[in-house]
Amino acid sequence: MDSEAPDSAGARATAPLTGPPHPHTVQAGHYGMAVGRADHVSYYAASRAPASWPLQVGTVPAAARGFQHRPALDGLLGPTVRCGVLVGTAGVGKTQQAARLARAAWDEGRLDLLLWVTATDREAVVAAYAQAAAEITGFETTAPEQGARSFLAWLTPAPADPRRRWLVVLDGVADPEDVRGLWPPGHPDGRTLVTTSRRDLAQPGAGRWVVPVGGFTQTEATAHLRDALAVGGRSGRPGELEELARGLGRLPLALAQAAAHLVGAGIDCAEYARLLRPGTGGTLAELVPGPGALPDGQPLSLHEAWRESLDRAERTPRTGGHVRPLLELASVLPPEGAPEAVFTGPAVLRYLEHYRAATAADVVPVHVEDVRTALEVLDRLCLIEYLPADTYRAVRVHPVLQRATREAPAARVPYWTAASALVEAGSRFRDDPAFTPFLVRAVGLSQELDGSALWSTTPHWDTSLGSDHPSGAHEVLLRMGELLGEADGPEAAQSHFRQLADEALRRHGPKSSVFYSARKRLAHWQGEAGDAAGAAAAHAALLGELVQAVDPAHEHTFSTRAALGHWRARAGDPAGAAAAYAELAPLQARQYGPGYSDVVDTRVRAASLLGEAGDAYGAAIAYEALLHDLLRHLAPQGGPRLPRWSAALGMLVRNRPDWSDVFGAHFGHAHWRGRAGDPVGAATSLTHLLNEQVRVLGPAHPDTAATREELARWAPYTRSG
Q1: Whether the Cβ atoms of residue 18 and residue 153 lie closer than 8 Å to each other
Q2: I need a surface site. Which of 44, 283, 664, 715 has the fewest CB within 10 A?
Q3: Which H or E run contains 168?
Q4: What is the DSSP string of 2-33?
Q5: CA of 234: how far to CAs of 230, 241, 266, 366, 701, in Å?
Q6: Tens digit of pLDDT for each residue in 56-65?
Q7: How confident is the model at residue 458 (pLDDT cuts 50, 70, 90)?
Q8: Are residues 200 and 177 in contact, defined by beta-carbon separation less than 8 angstroms?
Q9: Which of 41, 90, 45 is nearest to 404 (CA)?
Q10: Please, what is the Cα angle at 387 between 381 and 391, to 5 degrees?
Q11: What is the 3-state secondary structure (H, E, C) of 337-363?
């Protein structure tokens, strides 16, 4: 809101146009008029007879075809309201609702003066006020600002002057500066009605009622279409009207222009709804009448309705050129809302820096607060709704504005950046199942808007991306399947990965890394659904294809062999699982070195599963070989010590083996040595292990306790026993 209250604007203006002279006065007679202070008076020649009452100045817009009455606004000119403000984004029908209220007050005889001002800028407001002063008095001035001040003074008459009931409508105020010092006074006989897309003008206060105006309800939208079509001699089935109303986001401006286009182009609602769907029709500019055929005197086509607000947003200081790219980002996210985290993550900050580098001479780092400032500006101008406290719906944009943004000349539609932002936000909301429906909706929207948006043209293998990040498609497509499995169950994940595999095969062929990744995750969720044997068979088939398609040392083959061992074990085939791990370990060792932690883990699994398969002696030998290699690797490090803890990462740093691995291999060797028929050797080995664990880990450590329990099992078989 303007920093000056409406009451103060009148208090600083000149005195009334009627009433006796006083030190700050306006004098009106038959032949002339004097305006100013007693020591400085300017005279103007009479140009017309004073107006008769009641008086209407300015043109009140006629009711639109299919106009829908909104009863919630009826009290906006009530007895306790001095100023009513209708605020909302372009196209929601603020002007039509204000016009209805103004006409009703006029027709019911509740007004002596009705002034309608199309407040496009300050000059328009001043000119309208000056015209009102001239109409009231019959005297014109060549100084509009002087006339405007005189009109504001007239709105607060002196006690002896005739009382006039007035309503001033300021329609379409676009900037607080346009009405600074021009607010009508708060007077018992007067009312002010404002329509605006500026939330900073819509601040409630004493005697001021602010009403946010949104789109129609579904019932209102359908009725509007029906009535507007009927004026043009057309009709539509109820179901088709409802579908079309939903497709246009129930925005009154969109509905009015769509109805006019339906009548003018001679097409039916079903065809229009089909053309409106992404990928099947034209742009918004092609789906509404041209400028000369717009209905109800509308000045702008639908796709241009937000142009002025966006231009103002871009000119606002401290936005850093970020408002347009952020609006473009929001245009590919669900209109019902997206988390703030999607807009403030590293992917978007990098994108904004690159965007500025391409459009400005200077490049500066972008910070989270820069993004929030730009979002606040977009919210202030009703281009978005920004509610940071709403976890999942912090940023909302009307779907028609989203489409207009995507179709704007030179628009950069950042589908890939949005997907990266979704992945980052998914990491933040990893433990929150409520994030999954939003992610599914967001990814589905991107695919609906542009089926190729999340697919690259590169179907080749990229070893730098690893098994979970294949080239050819955005990571979010795989991440969504995992979240679906965790939130909705294995069947949902299987359905997603089956469709993803089919799409990858269609786009990139049978050697696509996305194709293999989707099939691998499909096999995984097949096992999670209870079919471990089927999952193992699927991984075995996939492995057979992989070794023919890529290097045997590729990360995909490693992860697939590991998964094969896992699901064979889950299916009750420990021997087959041990064989899979035994084949994997030397491949990993050649690729990463024998001391790599994954190699150690693979050898542990292979040895343990060998024992579970009934080959206790083979398991003991495998553990003994592992123990020998670990001791040889760690001996130069100066003896047993605990794994290193990284405070920066908040995790154990284990990219190489440590003495915990030695203790584990030692325990496994002793256990299977005893199971293989050498209880004395097992007890001796465990005694040595226990002494080392007590020294390094302490007597209360869980691993120490496990060794003590295992030793008690074999101790009765020793010679001393």
Answers
A1: no
A2: 283
A3: strand 166-173
A4: -SS-HHHHHHHS---SSS---SEEEEE-SSEE
A5: 5, 12, 9, 53, 83
A6: 999 999 999 8
A7: low
A8: no
A9: 90
A10: 150
A11: CECHHHHHCHHHHHHHHHHHHHHCCCC
CB atoms within 10 A of CB 703: 16
Q: Among candidates 178, 215, 274, which has minimal Cα distance to 94? A: 215
* Token representation of residue 413: 């539609």
Q: How far apart are CA 122 and CA 130, in angstroms?
A: 12
Q: How far apart are CA 600 and CA 611, in angstroms?
A: 17
One-letter amino acid at 193 equals: L
Residue 211 in tokens: 């009403």
Contact 177, 1 (CB under 8 A): no
- From the list 317, 265, 311, the residue with the least C-alpha distance to 288 is 265
**Which of 430, 345, 337, 439 minimizes the C-alpha distance to 390?**
337
The Cα–Cα gap between 666 and 674 comes to 12
Q: What is the pLDDT of residues 667-695, one digit of tens each?
A: 999 999 999 999 999 999 999 999 999 99
DSSP 337: -
Q: At what angle do helices 323-330 and 399-406 cross, to 10 degrees?
A: 120
Dihedral sign (CA 493, 494, 495, 501): positive
Residue 41 parent element (H or E): strand 40-45
422: three-class secondary structure by DSSP: helix
- The rounded distance, in Å, linking the Cα atoms of 66 and 235 is 12
CB 223 within 8 A of CB 250: no
- Taking the C-alpha atoms of residue 456 and residue 507, their distance in angstroms, rounded to an integer, is 10
Report the distance separating Cα 60 and Cα 77, nearest Å.
16
Residue environment code for 112-143, b if the CB has 16+ CB neighbours within 10 A, otherwise e? ebbbbbbbbebebbbbbbbbbbbbbbebbbee
Asked if residue 608 lies in contact with residue 622, where contact means CB atoms within 8 angstroms, the answer is no
The Cα–Cα gap between 310 and 690 comes to 73
550, 495 Cβ separation under 8 angstroms: no
pLDDT digits (tens, 9 = 90+) for 559-569: 999 999 999 99
Residues in Cβ contact with 623 at an 8 Å cutoff, skipping those fewer than 6 apart: 607, 665, 668, 669, 672
Quick one: angle between helices 415-428 and 323-330, nearest 10? 80
The torsion angles phi and psi of 714, rounded to 5 degrees, stand at -100, -15
Which tokens belong to 476? 């979010």
Place of tokens 């009605």: 193
247 pairs with which residues across the strands?
A: none
| Three-state secondary structure of 98-164 | HHHHHHHHHHCCCCCEEEEEECCCHHHHHHHHHHHHHHHHCECCCCHHHHHHHHHHHCCCCCCCCCC
- CB distance 654 to 597 below 8 Å: yes
**pLDDT at residue 420, rounded to an integer:** 95
For 361-414, where are the alpha helices, taking DSSP H only?
Answer: 368-380, 399-406
Q: How confident is residue 11, by pLDDT bands cut at 50, 70 and 90?
A: very low
Q: How far is CA 365 from CA 320, 322, 331, 687, in A?
A: 10, 12, 24, 61
pTM: 0.82
* Residue with the two structure tokens 């001033």: 168
Taking only the tens place, the pLDDT of each residue in 61-97 is: 999 988 999 988 888 888 889 999 999 999 999 999 9
Query: Which residue bears the tokens 């005739």?
Result: 162
Cβ-contact 103, 60 below 8 angstroms = yes
Phi/psi for 379 (5° steps) reads -70, -40
Which residue, chain included where needed, has tokens 């820096």? 353
Q: How many residues does the chain have?
A: 721
